[in-house]
Model the fold of this input.
Amino acid sequence: MNAFRPILLLGLAWLMVTAPLNVTAQLTGNAAGKNFSLPLFTDAGARSALLRASLARTVGGDRIELVEMNLTLFSSDVANQIDTIILAPVATFLPSTTLASGEKSVRVIRDDIEITGEQWTYDPAGKKVSLQKNTRVVFQAQLPDILR
Done:
């Protein structure tokens, strides 16, 4: 995941300069972009993540607020299938550290587990989501001998 940060920063810089068709305004100053979409790739060119939001706006020099965030993470193998989806109605993204966080709800979806909660942080370096409040975990997989 070392490639995640430089590619993300490069992608954000590119978005701010070129303002592609899916962004209605450049993300500079306190501007906002609708239908924000940022694909992320590994050094080998494989898709690693797709960050989307219905609205993205910069707040300060190194903070982006996302409305209706959808972060889709892909497997690092050749199949490049969806591994995890992280959904949040409101999130803050810090490009310099690639951390995403939010005070309100988050939903983490995988084939084997679904987690919801509040006051969350996603750290892509450690590939972990930390939840501080009202956490609920639903296992979709069998857990034999879990009580032994």
